[in-house]
Input
Amino acid sequence: MDLISLALLIVILPLSSYFILNIVGNKLPRQGDWLSTGAIFGSFICAVIIFANMFSAYDPNWLIEKTWTWIDLSSVNIPWKLDLGVRLDNLSATMLLMVTLCATLIHLFSTGYMRDHDGKPEDGYRYTSFFSYLSLFTSAMLGLVISGNLFSLFMCWEVMGLCSYLLIGFYRHKPSAANASLKAFMTTRVGDLGLFVGLLAIWNYVGSFAFTDIYAAINNGTLDASLFGTSAAFVIGLGIFIGTVGKSAQFPLQIWLPDAMEGPTPVSALIHAATMVSAGIYLIIRVFPILEYGHVLTIVAYVGGFTSFFAAIIAIKQNDIKKVLAYSTLSQLGYMVLVLGVGSYTTSFFHLITHAVFKACLFMSSGAVIYAMHHEQDMRHMGGLKKKLPITFAAMLITTMAISGVPGFSGFASKDRILAYVYGFVHHHPQHMLLAFFAFATAGLTAFYMFRLIFMTFWNEPHDKHHYDHAHEVSWNMWLPLVVLAGLSFCVIYTGSITGFGFDKIFGAANEWIITLNPAPLVNGTEAAREAMEEAAHHAHYPAMILSILLAGSGILFSYLVYGSRKISAEKISGMVPNFVHRWIDNLYYFDFFYIKIVIQKIFLPFSSKNASFDNTVIDRGLVDGWKDIAKVSYFAVDLVDNEVVDKGMVDGFGGKLPYALGSSLRALQNGKIQRYLTVAVVALMLLFIFRGVL
Amino acid sequence: MEGGGILAGLATNPEAYLLFSLLLFSFGIIATLARKNAIGIFMGVELMLNAAALNFVTFQVLRRGVVANETWLHGHIFSLFVIILAAIEAAVALAIVLRTFGSRQSIDPDRATELRG
Amino acid sequence: MAHLLSWMTFFPLFGVLAIALTPKSKEALIKWIALASVTVPLLLTVQVITAFDRLNSGMQFEEKFSWIESLNVNFHMGIDGLSVLMVILTALISFLAIFASWNVKKMVKGYFMMYLLLHVGMMGVFCSLDFFLFYVFWEVMLLPMYFLVGIWGGEKKEYAAIKFFLYTLFGSVLMLVGIIALYMYSRGPDGMGVPTFNMVALMQHDWTQYTINIFGQQLPFDKTVWWLLFVGFAVKVPIFPFHTWLPWAHVQAPTAVSVILAGVLLKMGTYGLLRVNFMMLPEATKAFSYVLVILGIINILYGAFCAMAQKDLKKLVAYSSVSHMGYCILGMAVLKPDAMAGAILQMFNHGLSAAMMFMLVGVLYDRLHHRYIVTPDGRLGFGGIAQKAPLITAAWTVAIFASLGLPGLNGFISEALVFIGSFQAYKTETVIASLGVVLGAAYLLWMAQRVFLGPDTTLEKDSTGTLVPAGEMEEPSLREWIVIAPLGALCLFIGLYPQPMLDFIRETIGKMLEVYQ
Output
């Protein structure tokens, strides 16, 4: 079987599982959860084969492509074709492996999590629905990854939006879940509008959606055309980036992701940490040449930096264990966007992969904690769980060290590169100093709030004795995924190469295969800039690394002092911060307030009801039924003329009563009596004959 | 002209037939105009139709004396049509009358005023 | 089969006759006769689908007999790529809507006779190639519709029916003037030729050479006639500001009639625009295409905003039809092959998804006897139906997402094609219009949230007309599934593989746009 068919099989397996589960799911044993899990495991095997092929070639320019015509509107006069295709390169092969791995483990985790402690499904056949949604979601995500063109990518992108909607609103009796799902879909839809406009512009200027053609168009200057007063490349780049802003929850469309935690925890792990939100990053990595060529990167960098910093600030104040992770996801995604904005899409991809692995593990660990605590999510009610949940604790600790950037773990390697690139960039462009501040401050904050989570959850004595006593380690199908993912959170997995493992590779100073194998963007004329960037990052490497270790270390230490050993009172610290800052952060910087209370409730809905009543009163009653009134007015006018001019003026002048008498006598004829009519007819006929005779 | 019988009489004395037809027609008109009973009105209509049919036949025969080698039978055919139509009309009209009576216990046409504006 | 189109059009007349001869007490028999008489045209579409030559841009299955010789009126039927999808849609929707009318209680005999007559009118409009015949069918369709709304409708049925009737009549009178003008001028510049109603011949006529004298003004003939015809069709589409009959008619009509109204009747307007305005008067169309673009955008956004504010479920769906027909107008107005294909496909797609939605509104109405999203006293009228009836909710989900243009379902394909095409011609306008995609998602999902999600607070109208908490709700019966399932399946099929539909229309589009290049 060739790799293209294998790639298609990766998508088709979960998709067919979706359809089968929808039709016969609840008649299958165990409501068919094994079918969904097995399907995605099959996809994982295929992804491993593809990855092995890619890895054994070890060539940055490894590429397999195939296209099919999907829509053909060609007629005799006009050629018109829309091709869909599969594109397997190092990027998509690595991504496939990551997505299928995370998805398989999360499916496995869900077989435990979505059942109650007696092993019964939570709620009848909704259990089947859950797995069918997961299957649809993974197939869409995988379809997105193998897409060789923006159109099928966009289609999968939207289907993921649907799955996200269905899964966030999974507990649909809860109004909060319903709100969150609507909010998620609508917010991402606003972003998708940008992506869609970008797509339209691409079709207009390139005449194809295939990445290959788009790269070629950049090289031959097609995208220099002017559009909306700027260059087409800028419009396209910005449009696509707005899509990413929606999907990856960047400022200012970040509001949906924290609310998305209303969904079941495996969903949060799968969609809102590991895969769907990374789809946005994956997209901008794919179209990086457009962003670069269209000069969108500065905007990208600022959006990313802003998101990473301000989300980290909110995370500090959260007490819901999932909310902390949600904001850390925002913040880490901001990192990826930021480093892409300063020009290193390879680093962005590196962090995308490492983040997906450790964040999936973090979310599932939190899920295990929540499950063990009988759906208690507030960290203030936890504490001391490390004895009760040893495996979960170990996995969570490892991945927390990874996200905090402790040397030896995967997060260190990728974050170190991010900081180095930002540092190098700012060194060359001092006017963008703010970006470096965002990046480094976030590094420290991340370590602080992640260890805060660990300390609050696992350290010290339990806060809620009742829940604590009932807590116990979760079953194998729930801890196994944690162990696997924690095992993959070590640096050496990503920094080793087929040539060997040195000291720096184990501790993360070197970045081997995952960087080496990143395909170079096929755009002419930017090599010099890119070399300068690499050079700057190279020089910035050690200062950045030392600074980041220092920041992470002090973050962890501070966190220990406040939440671990409790040498410093948390209340005292927070008391030092002015009240309005607290309010500002607690209200999430008033973004939700602005969108929902002002834009939607004060502007949008009143406008639409005004519009509807305009339709009802002015158009319908006024213009249409109004004809009746116009007719009435004209009666009135005619009546006036008739009375005043014709009747009083002329008729009365001619002697008045005659027309009336004539009229009433004729009126008598119109009495509806059929025989009277007949009589008149006969008389008239006779008169006619008589006169004929006379004449 | 040796047809004999009635037709022979007709040929020799057509005025009697026309006069009879006139009488029939007049009775018919009077009945139609004056009766309050729908059946009466309807019988008047029948009389008028028959008067017309009689006229057709009469004039056909008269015409034979005027035009040589007359082979057309228009008058006869028309009178046949009239008879057929009259029969159909009778069927339909009686049905209507019956239905009307069934629904309102009266067949006075002047009292059927539901459609009046 | 010879005379395929005549059979498809007139077969239901046999049904009308058979029902007329059936005693009115035998209601079941009447329904089965009606079902049989719409099944035959549906089966005949198989022949249309298999025998239709996809590479031929001209008229196919043509039939032509002399009808009124003195006026040169012919009985002339035929279909091309433009009408073939509509013929299929008409046969399909009419077939499915019979099941939706199965529980009609009042005057069953009359209902189904009217229904079948309506079928004749609709099918005839899409098949006829003679303008006289076209107009006759156009009017034939009007009358049964009037009665179906006016007799079997809801509380304000008379008002809705008379509004529909007068509106459409107003439009069709102007259209008649236009048709007669075309007929008279088809004698040629010297006025000596034989006038014709033949639509194919009229398409080849050069109308720009004439002027017409109205109130002493010398006006270009084609542009004047274009507007007369346009108003006639615009009422049917409906295009803003001629749309206000639609919410009334939809809301008051019984379920099956709403299904037909949304599924087929609205398409007669866009079909007429394409067949007559676009094909016969290309120069005028080119001149006024920008007006159409603006009207299309107004339809999209205006309909969406109106839908957002509706508190009646059926009215919301009705305004969403206004919005969706806007995509058709926009797509055809930009005169690009892709947008045109999108517009024609959107006609078909909207026929499926709107029909499905109206059917589902009917499903809810049959169970709960009201349609309030929000009741007059401010409560949620439905609320949390998902917990009572998960399968109804699932069907609604398909309809909602098909209609808001989710990839993988049919609406996306046509909307994407429309936008792809229109962006090439009008960039800013397209970006404004694409806001409709977001608005569409907003009003549909907000509705879904209020109707299906959240805690179960469903209300039901009891026999005294007060709203009380609803009891158990039945899932769709087999009869209802027969309507919903094929529509949903087709939505999915076209969404994944639209090419079979596009194969029908692409050559016709190519030929149609030839004159615009």
Residues 337-368 of chain C form the longest helix (32 residues). The two ends of chain C are 38 Å apart (CA to CA). Chains C and B do not touch (no CB pair under 8 Å).
